[in-house]
Amino acid sequence: MREVVVGVGSAVAGLPTPDGAETVVLPLGPHHPSAHGALRLRLTVDGERIATCEPEVGFMHRGAEKLFEVRDYRQIIMLASRHDWVSGFSSELGVALVVERMLGIEVPVRAVWTRTLLAELTRALAGLAFLGGLPRELTGAVDPLPLFAERETLQDVVEEAAGGRVHLMITRIGGLLDDVPEGWLDRAAAAVVRVRERVTDVGGALLADQSFRDRTSGVGVLDRDTALAHGVTGAAARACGLDLDLRRDDPYLGYDELLAEGVLRIPTRSAGDAYARLELLHTQTLVALDLAAACIDRVHALPPGPVGVRLPKNLKAPEGAAYAWVESPIGANGYYLVSRGEKVPWRLKLRTASFGNISALPAMVTGGTVNDLVAVLASMCFVTGDIDR
């Protein structure tokens, strides 16, 4: 056997060579739209078969949880948004929710529905990012990537509302920075309709492509018990029959009403392979666009009103602990806050979805081929910064 160090992204040169081992540095990537960081997989291969796989993480670790402890509650929202640059709004939202729970703040109804709308637009953007690069990676197509380019349609309206393009930074403790601009809801509705048509047509054609199905069917199978053992959440978990979604199971924002109205649907699959995960991600993106359209209607129907509450300049949380979690586009993100009555948290622990998802990788790829790694990694929906924090 020989040992192969597979680099996802950059920074794979100059690795140490173990004594007595034949080490080959094989730059694989960046094949994943959000994996432009230094994740390494230490593989032992027997021919083309993977005998062992050890994910090496921590190269992007910047100690966010320790940085939280020396910044006040308004400032930590900015830090929390940075570790997942595909769906930073979910991280902003999770911090705001746990602080609001600790302080007993009731957020204005207009902010609740606008937050829900932005959360689903972000979910659709993440789905387009993960699906957008697949034609080149899994079918060898050299044409432009229409789904990835279609993100710009949604990104433009999100940027108009929030001011930020990648990190929205519109979330505030107690609500939002400001209301959406006049006429924005109509522009957002038009963008949702356009993108939904494109996702239906282009995404459907991709899933029906025979070369795509050949590269993903039966590849990287994740069973339900393994997903539970590793804490896998999101589309990767639901694709193997693990029916978990916090929007339904522990509703927050406006999701309880959307569920009652039948707009919120939680699709699942049972095969657990790369094709099932990507097909589910496609369906999840369409559902997110349906939810965004429903939220636009709700905000349209609301009378003008505040989108935030007035807070003291020196904001302090009472002594105690609180926990909140959100269903991010990748999976379940948890936020455990411990306060000693000061203006900074004593402890704020993050539970990020990418860490659990990538920890299941060895069980999924062992026994498979090196060639299948691309399909497996592309279907697992992770962000390297979200692993390391």
What does this structure look like?
- The chain has 389 residues and is of the alpha+beta class.
- It has a single domain, classed as Cytochrome-c3 Hydrogenase, chain B (Orthogonal Bundle), CATH 1.10.645.
- It contains 17 helices and nine strands.
- The strands form three sheets. The protein has a four-stranded mixed beta sheet with strand order 2-1-3-4. It has a three-stranded antiparallel beta sheet with strand order 7-8-9.
- A hairpin with a 2-residue loop joins strand 3 and strand 4.
- Helix 4 runs antiparallel to helix 13.
- The longest helix has 28 residues.
- It is globular, with a radius of gyration of 21 Å.
- About 4% of the residues have low confidence.
In brief, what are we looking at here?
With about 400 residues, the chain is of the alpha+beta class. The chain has 17 helices and nine strands.
